[in-house]
Amino acid sequence: MIDTGGARQGALNAYPRAPFRLHVSPPWPSERNVAPPDHQEIAITASDPVPLRKDGTPSAGTATTAVELRGITKRFPGVVANHDINLTVRTGTVHALMGENGAGKSTLMKILYGMQKPDEGTIAINGELCEFSTPGDAIARGIGMVHQHFMLADNLTVLENVVLGGEKFHGIGAKAKAKIKEISDQYGLGVRPDALVEDLGVADRQRVEILKVLYRGAKILILDEPTAVLVPQEVDALFDNLRELKSEGVTVIFISHKLHEVLAVADAISVIRRGTTVGDADPKAVTARQLAEMMVGAELPSPESRESTVTTTEMLDVKDLRIAKTDAEGIERVVLDDISLRIHKGEILGIAGVEGNGQAELVEAIMGMLPLDGGSVTLDGKDLSGTLTRARREAGIGYIPEDRHRHGLLLEAPLWENRILGHVTEAPNSKGMLLDPTGARTDTRRIVEEYDVRTPGIEVTAASLSGGNQQKLIVGREMSHQPKLLIAAHPTRGVDVGAQAQIWEHIRVAQRAGLAVLLISADLDELIGLSDTIRVIYRGRLVADADPATVTAEDLGTAMTGAASGHLESEPDALAEAQALAAEGTRAEDTDPSDTADDPQAGE
Amino acid sequence: MSTATAARPKAPGAPAKKHKLSWPVVLLLIAGALVLFSAVGMATGNHSLTSSGQVTAALSAAVPIGMAGLGGLWSERAGVVNIGLEGMMVAGTFCGAWAGYLVNPWVGLLAGMAGGALGGLLHAVITVTFGVDHIVSGVGINLLIPGICAYVNRIYYKDYISAGAGANQSPPADPLPYITVPGLSSWLKGIEGHHWFFVSDVAGVCAGLVTNISVVVVLAAALIVVTYFVLWRTVFGLRLRSCGENPTAAESLGVNVYKYKYLAVIASGAFAGLGGAYLSLVAAHFYKDGQTLGRGFIGLAAMIFGNWMPGGLAMGAGLFGFTDSLQLRDPESVHVLILVVSIAMALLALWQLYRRKFTGAVVSLVVAGGLGAWYALTDEVQRPLIVATPYVITLVVLSLASQRLRMPKADGQIYRKGQGK
Amino acid sequence: MTSPNPAAKRGPVQRISGERIMLALAAPVLAVVLSVAICSVLLATSGKNPFDAWNVMITYATKSDGQVAILNRSTTYYLAAAAAAFGFRMNLFNIGVEGQYKVAALFAAYIGTQVDLPAIIQIPLLLVTAMLVGGLYASIAGLLKVLRGVSEVISTIMLNAIALAIVGVLLAPGVFAPKVSGTSNSIQTDPISQSSHFFSIETAGGPLWGFLFVAVAVGVLFQFTLTRTRFGFDLRATGRSESAATASGVNVKKMVITSMAVSGAIAGLIGMPELLQNSFYYGQTFQQNLGFLGISIALLGRNSPIGMAFAALLFAFLDATGSQLPLQGGFPAEIVPVMQGTIVICVVVAYELVRRYGLTRQQKKVGEQLAAQLAAAEKKEVSA
């Protein structure tokens, strides 16, 4: 038992949103469907054109309006990303914009930042109507944005990245450098202006991004999912910064889908669902469950209780895996070090970790896409260490990649060709050296049917499907070859809630039938809810392990920063507290009997 | 998996400093090379490799290569690959000779730049506005522009036979002035004539730099320096380079990426056009088809050799200009060059032994031995091999130092506004 | 599209593909029309009636000797296009076709002068030599890309120039060329042996090269490999998305080397019709620039075997009939490269526009159709 109490200071210490283990078919048949009626409860007001609410004036804010969006509509080919969105943000507040993945938050913010033009609607900044055709227009109005994917040029210095586009403030020379140092010191950002960005880590890059915005004297700050790449402790530090900014009169628009973060930091909340605003909420009065229901748009489904399906038959055995890359200077960088793990038939092993700590490389190593410097990979008693990716796939590894557009699909190819992808040597896709288009087509129709892929036909390109349907096609494809092991990297990232539930259900069904699953996810709730065992990866090493039944997300987060190692077990009262909060969100978190495979060698 | 790569934890205490050649080191290397040349010159009695004539010829040959490379640099720094440089150079040769004849050679230079810029504009329209693959567009331009120039050449100059136009070439334009520093030039040449060890070689090289230099050579050297300042020391340059590194980031900061890409590619064409005008106004005084002889491609190679930096590009252009000019020299001096390179490789092998890089040392030693044997067993070098030297050097540099080379990150990628993540 | 009638459901999908064919055809037709217009203006500025020029060209194409000339040229062009297209299909820019065919033809010519076997062995020997040399030369670029990460665009450009040097060194008196050169001023190899001559068909317009059948066979094999074999699927997958192909188990490195070699091997055939059917020797006057023409034809034909056949015929038509322009009416033949250049540039732009338009259009249609299905389903529910 490791004491991780020190890490729990600051924000709320639990993740109230438990995974939705849906067994129901989704109640909303299409993404473009009209949203079900809102659950109007106390403290939640439907968004209406009245810009100000009389009650609940936020702490530090004056009663002026910083941003007012009216009737924003944005259409993309085939989809309406934003439909009649209304949003009012008061000056000097932290305003949270909530919504599930794909609800249209990012599109809305791109419109506010001038990166995209709305088809309809108006934008008013500080009471003045504006039209933005480029980000430059938005910047001129004092709007700054920190993007989810860092907008930095690797081969330029921090100084160059910061002054780019804002050269008129302090030039690009010594004066600018002094100003950067000044801002950096003022907020304790610790930014070195002459460093090359490619040499910086994630947290440093985010600080450069924030500095970039502050440098331009932005008064309205948009943060797009800023916490996605941070560990909980770094999130706390970020929130402290936000509160400081707020006290100096800066307006912050904070985009997130994480309930606990929003409740911890926001003064006001707006919820977006399926491209339209469904309501505003006061964080002081609203419960996590009410927020979750607003985001999802329906009563939350009840989690089903489940029994352990873990068997004693070993399926995957990874031993002493090591990958080191030598860079141009001859310095060896260890990417994966001494990784050993075992997955049994019917077991789901979850890997927790901040992105970039070696998860991607672990997956690629098991898939045979990266050469090993040491160690072995054994599947079902067969040593696969030296084999190529194709042989491993044929041996029974299914793969749901992290980035489906880059690794899972041929976007411009028809669905039936995408069905062949990855299984070109297997029936029904080929006979001998020749392809079997007829067989592939027939089987694609089956997958479309069985996995509920919404498409008008199998000849359309994969690019024309929505994210959730693309992912269902991939899941269906990978499940169609009786895999022994499924590698699922962020299997529900960027898909709608309905598809999310279906994908989880497919994984569980296969697990009951004896599938071994390696689950990698940034969503700790998904990990805790789905896994039988959790291992924590940090700087290329498996440093800790935990039983999902006896660990809180917060303690996992501590291990993810490298601050804790060994076997994690949360204090019973902290666990109870977390579960109580989770229960508020989705009734009761079921606790599994401890049946996890113990791996003694983790994190010494 | 881009985010994962970007966020990969670095091993602690591993400085990511890049090894850079500092000025003293460069000067030391040049001095060392001169010593080597002069020693070999003494030993063989052939001093032509460091003679003022050779240096002047090398400089002269380096100009079109350097200007094409400069064009490539501007374009690729903004993220547009430009293999249409060859075609833009042809436009420069044509327009340069045309205006050079009709008005005067100074206007000819400007017209050459304008012609090249027009080709650059076409490349920009195709790649930036229409989003066509940069290579495809470059191939198309290399087909189209020489075709148009050859056609116009054929129908236009047939009326100018009386003015000295050939069947397939333009009438001659007036020459551009040459610069010789009085006094200094003859003094240096005097020293050169004594064949003193090292001193005469230095004097020969310096004499080559101050004797009979076309004004365009000076202009070209100035343009390379100016390019460095514009691209690395001004707001304009910062914005332009940001478009080649991460256009989406630049866009998010209010930079009009299309504008900078357009300007860069047009400037790229103008530089290539200047290189072309040099060929038809200085190297020759008239236009005829096929004057460029692939110099656009060598320019591209010089730029890659120079790691997408003006200084490196200048060195690359100088080196390739040197080999280019050797074609016109006597075969004997080229033969001597083999010995020089062989000794240089042997010295490199020693250095690598000292640095305990044994495989590298063995490779260098084998190359040195091979070249030495070649020198000993033959009397002259076939000219085609000299022509191919720049290309072989570039291939070797690319394959041996590809990790050290750093091309702009978004080079060659098609950018659409508002489609970044 | 809002009709809930299920019978109408398949309609739009079919219409999409019908539309796609229309769009695909519209681009090249538009490009040719535009190019004819531009060249008409150019011809008119030289003070001649452009319609006379077109008339000369079309008239020659209706004569049997013109037709044979077009077919013979298009044989060469088609092989050049196929060589480039094989690489393009997996996003590999083999700019080096130019160098590969020259080196290959030189070696084949040399073997042809040195060996004299029965034709049934001799001709395959020469073809295999050419393909082997072309393939090996191309795989240098493939190896550099795989082992050292050198862009194939740059390396093949360099290799093109190096190929010239190789030819220059080898095609010297006493090496591959005879010590005492013959009647011609240019340096060239001896004529290849009689048994190396490929068959041709005598027609009213002169001999039609039998190599046409080889070109057709290459096209058929090309199409079959790409659309019907596992290898072809891997190749196309790599071309569409290298990252997805890697994750799907394609050994991309092996694919790069293989397809570079295949592309080079096809390139090796480019010089063969000329060598085995027309000039019978390799010399300094051997046809230049076929590699870049091949790239242009591949682009025009969208790398599809059938499209390239039409493109090769078009370019051969321009070249063969263009040669008549100076003879009849004194038009400069240089107008032909201008036409070819404008066609290529117009067509790549048009294809890109069509591709983007088609993609967004399909996304929109799919969205609309799903909405229609949904509306139908809801209506059913309400009525039930």
List keywords for this structure.
heterotrimer, A: 604 residues, seven-stranded mixed β-sheet, disordered C terminus, B: 421 residues, mainly alpha, 17 helices, globular
Structure description:
- The complex is a heterotrimer of chains A (604), B (421) and C (384).
- Chain A has 604 residues and is an alpha/beta fold.
- Chain A contains 19 helices and 24 strands.
- In chain A, strands 1-11-10-4-9-8-7 form a 7-stranded mixed sheet, with helices on both faces. In chain A, strands 17-20-21-14-22-23-24 form a 7-stranded mixed sheet, with helices on both faces.
- Residues 1-62, 300-305 and 585-604 of chain A have low confidence and may be disordered.
- Chain B is mostly helical and 421 residues long.
- The longest helix of chain C has 49 residues, at 335-383.
- A two-stranded antiparallel ribbon of chain C has the order 1-2.
- Chain C starts with 10 loop residues before the first helix and ends with a helix.
- Chains A and B meet through helix 2, helix 3, helix 6, strand 13 and helix 10 of A and helix 1, helix 10 and helix 11 of B.
Mean pLDDT of chain A: 78
Please state the overall shape of chain A, judged from the principal axes of the Cα atoms: globular
- The tally of strands of chain A reads 24
Strand order, largest beta sheet of chain A: 1-11-10-4-9-8-7
Main β-sheet description of chain C: 2 strands, antiparallel
Quaternary organization: heterotrimer
Total E-strand runs of chain C? 2
Main pleated sheet of chain A: 7 strands, mixed
Q: Count of DSSP helices of chain A? A: 19
Structural class of chain C: mainly alpha
